[in-house]
Design a protein that fits this description.
Number of helices: 11
Oligomer: single chain
Shape: globular
Number of domains: 2
CATH class of the largest domain: Mainly Alpha
CATH superfamily of the largest domain: Rhodopsin 7-helix transmembrane proteins
Length: 311
């Protein structure tokens, strides 16, 4: 087991731990809130988590064996690829629920365009892996000088021509619409929430797309040690950690984040002159009541806006 093999194993383990952390955290929110938007985002997190787990198991089995890929590790690796590719469907469903609001026809176009190009290769390639054992019927990418590999569909211009434009258009529409909403709202909590959502979407999509696109269509990335290390580090840092973190924070908007955004208390607004009070003497009871009323308004903020649209 050389240094590159250890790097890929550690990288995979950290990705798995990060995905489990964010998935379990969002699951706790889902159990508490029970909204459709939270469910769709959690499914996206969960699909990525299972994909990382299966790819990690495949890597560890290969590293522990004296030979390269076996039928089991090939099936695990390809299943992880399917889950990664399916994430664009779940992310679109989440973005459509929260931001896009596409009509039924547009939704059908996206779902058919995403699912059909995946459905045929899924059945054929599993049959090839489990029965025919013909590596020419699928793409097996070896990772630099390690004995680790990733299994993907055969390089197909038709597959890329269908899923590429649909995936890019869905991703760009979500990001652009979220930016417009962010700029159009005056509510500070909502503004920051939508900013985190579009930034998290961009980073998450960028990392995984860069990884699989380069390994699938640019073979030099899998054979150059420096490039392959950079690609896997970009996926780990920007997709599995920062991207998921921003998506989680932007959707959940926990109370501690709202406080860090600098929303002033009622007494601070009175002191700075943002709120005018009458000349008559304020009683202690009315003072405490107004503080509590303002604190409650702070807690609703972005979450209230989202919950109304998410029922």
């Amino acid at each position: 087991m050389n240094g590159f093999t250890i790097f890929f194993l550690v990288n995979s383990d950290i990705s798995v731990l990060a995905c489990i952390l964010f998935s379990s955290s969002l699951l706790a929110v889902l159990i508490r809130k029970r909204t459709m938007g939270t469910l769709l985002l959690w499914i996206t997190f969960l699909s990525t988590t299972f994909a990382e787990i299966l790819l990690g198991i495949s890597f560890h089995l290969e590293a522990l064996s004296a030979t390269t890929m076996t039928t089991v590790t090939e099936a695990l690796s390809y299943t992880s690829y399917i889950l990664f590719a399916s994430n664009i469907v779940f992310l679109y469903a989440f973005g459509n629920r929260l931001i896009l609001r596409d009509n039924s026809f547009i939704q059908l176009v996206y779902f058919v365009g995403f699912v059909f190009p995946l459905a045929l290769p899924v059945g054929l390639i599993f049959k090839n892996i489990l029965e025919f054992h013909d590596p020419n019927l699928y793409t097996k990418v070896s990772l630099t000088i390690s004995n680790l590999s990733i299994v993907m569909p055969v390089r197909s211009i038709a597959l890329l021509a269908i899923m590429g434009p649909l995936g890019i258009s869905a991703f760009l529409r979500i990001v652009i619409k979220a930016i417009r909403i962010q700029r159009g709202t005056k509510d500070k909590i909502a503004k920051e929430g939508f900013k985190y959502i579009w930034q998290g979407t961009f980073l998450w999509y960028m990392g995984y797309t860069l990884l699989f696109a380069t390994l699938w269509y640019i073979p030099v990335f899998s054979t150059n040690p420096v490039l392959i290390v950079i690609i896997f580090m970009v996926k780990l840092i920007f997709s599995d950690i920062i991207g998921f973190l921003l998506l989680y924070l932007g959707w959940v908007m926990p109370d501690w984040l709202k406080r860090r955004l600098g929303t002033k208390s009622w007494i601070a607004k009175v002191y700075t002159g943002e709120i005018k009070v009458s000349e008559k003497k304020e009683t202690t009871k009315s003072f405490v009541y107004k503080q509590e009323e303002h604190t409650q308004q702070q807690k609703t903020g972005f979450s209230a806006v989202v919950e109304v649209s998410d029922k």
